[in-house]
Amino acid sequence: MPDRENNVRSWLRQIFPVLLVVGLAVLAWAALTAGGGLPAFILPSPADVARAGWRTRSLLLPALGTTLLETFIGLAVSVVLGVTLAAAVDLSTFLRRALYPILVASQTVQILAIAPLLIIWFGFGMTSKVLIVVLICFFPLALNTADGLASADPDLVALFRAMGARRGQIWRMIRMPSALPGFFSGLRIAVTYSVVGATIAEWVGGTQGLGLYMLRSKNALATDQVFVAILITSAVSIGLFVLVTMIERAALPWYYSAQRKEQWDEAGIF
After folding, report:
1. Which residues contact 74 (CB under 8 A, 6 or more apart)?
2. pLDDT 10s digits, 87-130
3. Which of 9, 57, 78, 214 could pair covalently with 138 via S-S, beta carbons 3.0-4.6 A apart?
């Protein structure tokens, strides 16, 4: 019971500052719309946004489902592609020299510039949307996982080699566990961008989804509905981020040990 109470207190200490800042921001927003004299199509009030969300809920729910489906498929492909590329550049010096510059160069291409081309090549269906999500998400996964694989303790690797361990055993028992924190760091970044990527794809050439909902609302000067789509996109991104963090803490209890957390608290990281 004491441990459970301590966990609840720790969770409240972490969540309270966020709720306080969000609450103050909503109050400031409401005060600005009430006293600023701005028309609702320029800056709707929080109440207007809430009413718009409820009024268009029959459109929002299918649009949210489409965006989530594109996001999850794109994330799944990104995880497979990112981890495979990270393993390739870690296992082969030739592949590292060949692929690493291409990985970096792939992120210099503007998504808004290449998205119309993907729509032309792959049509208005789900394939082009998933590809855009993959283009946004695979890089942080590949880079962080590759860095994690390279961060394995060299003394421990040397010890295993001296004990006669094969390369596969060293990779499985040392390098892969060392890469897991980096993999989850990349996954947290990827899930944050994934919903935005799917929304951008729908905005550029979608037939359904939150991006299309937002585009049609913008064209109709329904600013309150644009705010609804923005808030839903942010809420989904935050939810996915929290979910990945919870999975990471469950999968890596040794990484989030009490001693390590105490060191982080003392260092002022949190």
Report:
1. 129, 130, 131, 132, 133, 134, 137, 194, 197, 198
2. 888 888 888 888 878 877 777 777 778 888 888 898 888 898 99
3. 78
